[in-house]
Specification:
This protein is 31% helix and 22% strand. With 341 residues, it is of the alpha/beta class. Strands 5-2-1-6-7-8 form a six-stranded parallel beta sheet, sandwiched between helices. Strand 12 (271-273), helix 7 and strand 13 form a beta-alpha-beta unit. Helix 1 crosses helix 8 (319-338), helix 3 packs across helix 5 and helix 3 crosses helix 8. The longest helix is centred in the last third of the chain and has 20 residues, at 319-338. The termini are close together. The structure holds (2R)-2-aminohexanedioic acid. (2R)-2-aminohexanedioic acid binds at residues 98, 131-133, 159, 163-164, 202, 213, 216. Substrate binds at residues 159, 237. Keywords: Amino-acid biosynthesis, Diaminopimelate biosynthesis, Lysine biosynthesis, Methionine biosynthesis, NADP, Oxidoreductase, Threonine biosynthesis. This is Aspartate-semialdehyde dehydrogenase.
Length: 341
């Protein structure tokens, strides 16, 4: 017998990827319910490319009882309203929004990094999925931390517009076209022109001058990897449709060479090392779209600090950064706790 799974926010970028990944990875489901807002009721969506079409159900009337797992990709507002109802109905919520990530009673999980923390899920029946820029970074940091203990990380991100949803993707597309034909479109989703530009601002500003996206990278890394690791982040939106990139400088307690780091990363779970030190011998975001891996390139020593390394990290933000990580959590939950399938 397989699982009954609800995908909440099924019509969005991440919801569609969740459906695709459940099918691709042959997640042992008996039933998948696509759940969305009243606007999408009756909309038919395909489960990946299986040819199986399902009709969206209205979240306002959806009964979660009898469902084992609900993958939420609905944003913080609807999640605040419906996730507690799903959890109270006995369905384990795996939530992609930021709502529960810092709740001490909710595990925040990246299966390659802190799988054991999932055992705490029963307090609320909710498990949180991290922010996309955090997820790929901690996958890269974990195997190095295990060997040489990380003290401090300085990261600059190059985040694709799909992180801002379909509206963000549409804005990049329409703006690029408009600029080509000589128009001057006003920014809407983004605060400045995104086509042929970069914007050093993601999410709202905080009192200390950082942005909430930057704060998430700091706070979530501490919760997932190690509270002692210090992180300084600068998060930047770039005119790329899918795939987040990160330039990461790491300072370790113990000595570690670039060559040792390459050897460690080559064997690490979830990572593909592509680091040829020649023209094109590294990965760019367009090459990671649709993949599961977190790609690491450009590993080198950072001589400005003792025991320093620099590297380049690229991953599909809709997959490892969101839908894939959520499905991996569901798989982990199944193996350790729900035992069906
Ligand atoms: C972005 N990282 O690229 C954001 C999107 O907390 O889950 C995901 C926000 C989050 O805009």
């Amino acid at each position: 017998m397989g699982y009954r799974v609800a995908v909440v926010g099924a019509t969005g970028n991440v919801g569609r990827e969740m459906l695709a990944i459940l099918a691709e990875r042959a997640f042992p489901y008996d039933e998948i319910a696509a759940v969305a807002s009243s606007r999408s009721v009756g909309t038919e969506i395909e489960i990946g490319d299986t040819g199986q079409m399902i009709k969206c159900k209205n979240i306002e009337h959806f009964d979660f009882s009898g469902y084992d797992i609900a993958l939420f990709a609905a944003g913080s507002g609807p999640t605040a309203e419906y996730a507690p109802k799903a959890a109270a109905a006995g369905c384990v919520v795996i939530d992609n929004s930021s709502l529960y990530r810092m709740d001490p009673d909710v595990p925040l999980i990246v299966p390659e990094v802190n799988p054991d923390a999932i055992d705490g899920y029963k307090k609320k029946n909710i498990i949180a999925n991290p922010n996309c820029s955090t997820a790929q970074m901690v996958v890269a940091l974990k195997p190095l931390h295990d060997v040489a203990r990380i003290k401090r990380v300085v990261v600059s991100t190059y985040q694709s517009v799909s992180g801002a949803g379909k509206q963000g993707m549409d804005e990049l597309f329409e703006q690029s076209r408009a600029i080509f034909v000589g128009d001057k479109p006003e920014p809407a989703k983004f605060t400045k022109q995104i086509a042929f530009n970069v914007i050093p601002h993601i999410d709202v500003f905080l009192d200390d001058g950082s942005t909430k996206e930057e704060w998430k990278m700091v706070a979530e890394t501490k919760k997932i990897l190690d509270p002692k690791v210090k992180v300084q982040a600068t998060c930047v939106r770039v005119p790329v449709f899918v795939g987040h990139s990160e330039s990461i400088n790491i300072e370790f307690e113990n000595e570690i060479s670039a060559e040792q780091a390459q050897d460690i990363l080559r064997e690490a779970p979830g990572i593909m090392l592509v680091d040829k030190r020649e023209d094109g011998g590294y990965v760019t975001p367009v090459e990671c779209v649709g993949d599961y891996a977190t790609y690491i390139s450009r590993v080198r020593e950072d001589s400005t600090v003792d025991n320093g390394l620099a590297l380049w990290c690229v991953s599909d933000n809709l997959r490892k950064g969101a839908a894939l990580n959520a499905v991996q959590i569901a798989e982990l939950l199944g193996r350790r706790h729900l035992k069906k399938g």
